[in-house]
Amino acid sequence: MADKLLSRYEALKEQINFHNHRYHVLDAPIISDLEYDRLLNEIKKIEADHPNWITPDSPTQRAGAKLADRFSKIRHPSAILSLANAFGADDARAWLERIKKLDDRVEKAKFVVEPKIDGLSVVLHYRDGLFVQGATRGDGEIGEDITSNLRTVKAIPLKIPIQTEDRRPKTEKPSTVIRPPSYLVVRGEAFIPIKEFEALNKNWKKQARGHIKIRETLPQVHYVNLTRC
After folding, report:
1. In contact, 140 and 82? CB cutoff 8 Å
2. CB 63 within 8 Å of CB 79
3. C or N terminus of the chain, fewer CB within 10 Å?
4. Would you say 150 and 124 are in contact if contact means Cβ atoms under 8 Å apart?
5. Which residues are designated catalytic?
């Protein structure tokens, strides 16, 4: 029984690393995100039951996959980790129970649930309010420099704070403008809304990744948006 499970574990490592290469390096995935997550959860369960089997080449021992060589590399100031998955209400309750142990105020807290927008994770660097550098998430520790490409995305402010129309009631005193810190790092998601994308391509995730990761500077790409972190 143990030998059969160990063989399955070795097969899972090869399978997941293969799909990591297809997704992160070739930008040509052949399975859905859900299928990939199921494979990853299976190997995580095996490793939890048999921690002595874990080897350095296990896909659980790093945040992502290796980078392509066509872009210069940027080391992130802190690790850009991926989010954990939940596949139903039971998983959400288990997560809530875990974080309640860290702070009992969670029990009375209100939560906001939003759809997960899936495109390309990007990391923006601002110095004294000016956008100076942008990178992909990469392997979580080192990303690819895509600064010139991101400058063409109108949804990304080149200077912060952004001056917007004041919609407060006239009887309310204007608040003090919040100035950004001297060095600010923002994580967001570059994506193409489906309604603006249908005329271009049916695979919106690949299209968003492709537009940001091509090597030459793009014309103004008004249909790639940046969501909040």
Report:
1. yes
2. yes
3. N
4. yes
5. 116
Reported as a single tens digit per residue, the pLDDT across 38-81 is: 999 999 999 999 999 988 778 887 655 455 557 899 999 888 88
Cα 196–chain centre separation? 22
- pTM exceeds cut of 0.85: no
Q: How many helices (H) and strands (E) does the chain have?
A: 6, 6
What is the spatial distance between Cα 35 and Cα 196, in angstroms, rounded to a whole number?
27
Dihedral angle sign, alpha carbons of residues 198, 204, 206, 210: positive
* More reliable by pLDDT, 23 or 203: 23
Rounded-to-integer distance, Cα 21 and Cα 213, Å: 16
Residue position matching structure tokens 């930008």: 27
- CA gap 142, 136 in Å, rounded: 8
Residues 124, 134 contacting (CB under 8 angstroms): yes
For residue range 126-170, list pLDDT tens digits in order: 998 888 999 999 888 999 998 888 877 777 887 777 544 444 445
Q: Which domains are delineated in the chain? A: 2-61 (1.10.287.610), 120-227 (3.30.470.30)
